[in-house]
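Hi again,

Forgot to attach this to my earlier email, sorry! This is the prediction with adenosine-5'-diphosphate bound. I've pasted everything inline since the attachment limit keeps bouncing my files.
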Amino acid sequence: MKIAFVASEVVPFAKTGGLADVVGALPLALEDCGHEVIIVMPKYKCITDSKFKIKRVSADILSTVVGEKTKVYFIEQDSYFNRDGLYVERGFDYKDNLERFAFFSRRALDLLKEINFTADILHLHDWQASLVAVYLKNLYVFQPFYSKMKAILTIHNIGYQGIFARDQFSKLGLGWDLFNVEGLEFYNQINLLKGGIIFSDFINTVSPTYAMEIRDKEFGFGLEGLLNVRKDSLSGILNGLDYSIWDPDMDKFIVHNYSLVNPGSKAYNKGELQKICGLPVNNDLPVLGIVSRLVEQKGFDILAEGLDEICKMGGQLVILGTGDLKYHQILEKMVKKYPNIISLNLKFDDCLAHKIYAGSDIFLMPSSYEPCGLGQLISLRYGTLPLVFKTGGLADTINKHNGFVFSKYTKISLLKCIKQALVTFKDKLKWNVLIKNAMECNFSWEASAKRYSQLYVKAKSA
Ligand code: ADP
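Structure tokens for the complex follow:
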């Protein structure tokens, strides 16, 4: 089948979150299933020709190849994309984000015709590409070239919907008949993700549990009603993990490689991590790792509340992340209080992330909601036991046989779960069984790609 991915970020070219990891890896797994895939994304400032062997295709289109033959097309429009950030700079959203991604969506559709890529499926990602479905079904479908194309929208996080003021609607080039409750209007504003949900043939999200949860008021961020209307076209497919990047046996960022059959060297990575983080080097002290955006969604509200108590439990805490200033400040204060217990690294650092996944004993990921989550999947692969709240993709991947799960989103439940994990840590026999179970889990892209293939077949014949 011919599949065109349209996305605003793709590993290794540009990344702000898990979406980029998915769009970087899934096309390659689909290529292995025999599909012909292309990816279309904006040409941002961080994407340089020298770094990625990019060739010019036409006046505003550049291209490169990933995997065997998956072509990536970059849409170049410097006034929109040649900036330091992808969507945000110094904490502020770009004021012209609606125009930027409306332009991107239309240009992506036009590009398909220019390169004569008769896609069976347009696989769109998040609000930034949602307008592709809106334009396809309202403007392009009347042209024979586009008439048979089906749109699938993947929602990576329904908390981000692309909401803009109503007075920008005319910039979309759509009729005002689409600005109503059955269209893109959302409480008198424009909601791009809503447009994507309405006009895509199928909608999916990144775990089965999250696909159920977003139909509830608690998780749907106002779109639960619409998703219930479209429930027969909504599914959940768990993300995979790129095992060529996340493999403790081959990982170049860690000093001591290890694997399921030879797990002994994990302890050396722990010592190394304690050393570089300036913490006492002691294998008997459990290390709790965090690699995360420092935002409420990732559990930092209950973590911050319970931090004092966590620091008194006899373990060490290594934190890597950036996010809300509020949490930067709380954590900085706590490091001053517990310099031998907490290592705080307020930055984005891929190398340190690998070292934390390899060197920690427990990976803390108490997200209040989590569409899929990659951190827990990486941790499993590295034999670092995830400790999670039972929600979304965390509920679908972590259980008492490969980690620790609490099911009430409160500080008390979190602390109870950490205590239980620390007690288990002392029971080496039990701990090693859990590590083995964790490392035996298989969340590679292969299985996910098969499920996506089935969805594409269903969409094509719908
Ligand atoms: P998100 O909601 O942020 O997309 P995921 O768990 O799905 O959460 O994916 C986060 C990805 O970003 C993981 O690969 C994680 O290791 C990585 N990551 C997050 N923060 C940092 C950081 N400060 N430095 C390096 N990698 C990070």
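The chain is about 40% helix and 20% strand. The CA atoms of residues 424 and 431 lie 6 Å apart.

That should be everything now.

G.
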